[in-house]
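Please check this one:

***
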Amino acid sequence: MATGGWGPGTGQPGGNGPGGQGWGPPPGPPANNPYVPPQAPNPYPPQNPYPYVPPAPVPGRAPRRRSRLWFFSAPYLVAAVIRSAHRVATRLFVQEGDGRIEDRTVDRVQVARTVLGALATIGLFLAYGAEKDGWEDAATGGVANMIIAPVLLIVGGPLVIIGFVFYAPPHLRPHLRSRLHAPLKAVGWYLLTVVVLVGTLLGVAQAAKAELNGWQGFLVGIAGLAVLGWGIPFFLLASLYSARSAFNTAHVHPMLPPVVTVALVWVLALFNLIDSGMPQGPPVVQYCSLLGGPLSVTVVSLWEMHRMRSRFGVTVRGTAPVPVLR
């Protein structure tokens, strides 16, 4: 059959009839074409979008979790009570005041003086020995001084403050008196703490004498334990911080804390001399041990006042400037 010249006929190679091969290969470049360049390898191979593979579990014991009973253990409860008492004592008895000048150099010198004083005391004990129960007496004396210092401040501090106010010029005295509310508030909190602790001790003693039984005795015991367990650490921290800040007298004038501190250390030295006598050792060591603490505190306090006057422009008979950090 004629194809009209358009292709092979039926039955011929390449025809569409039976036995034919169709119209040839599909369109596109022939296989093994020498004129088509080979494809270059992909310089950016596909990467795994999730490259992290969790490690295989290591056979063995699973990590132990802290039991919830840890929050009811004695170490945790003691640490929680101390943190709470420290936070409240700091908020009540370490108020720097608007005119307080924070001199970090003076703070470092004060810390160094305290450390050197403690090392000197230990060195004297080791060099010249101590009497029977000497270390125990020294520790008891340190705690006693920490408790007596606020009492001396409450008794003698007003005299120092009154003298400081009257030494100021007349036109500044009303301003200084108007700023006495912060020290008086700190003294009030301290006296309230003492009253609560003494009242709790007396109440527990009376309950013990009355021999309360049952739920009444249980409630009194729990209440007394809670008040004393929190109140005694708070009282010790309040005594330490109130002696250091002189009951927040920096609210009145920046130079008032070092003045009160000098008066306090000399009164404490006199009390220790009357109570315990001269320290151990040769006469030179005795006098150095007795006068070393008060003299060093006096020198540091005078140097602090000199820095306030020379670097910050603060004078005893002048107003307090804007606080500056150095």
Remarks:
- The radius of gyration is 43 Å.
- The CA atoms of residues 54 and 121 lie 60 Å apart.
- Confidence is low (pLDDT under 50) at residues 1-7, 9-22, 321-326.
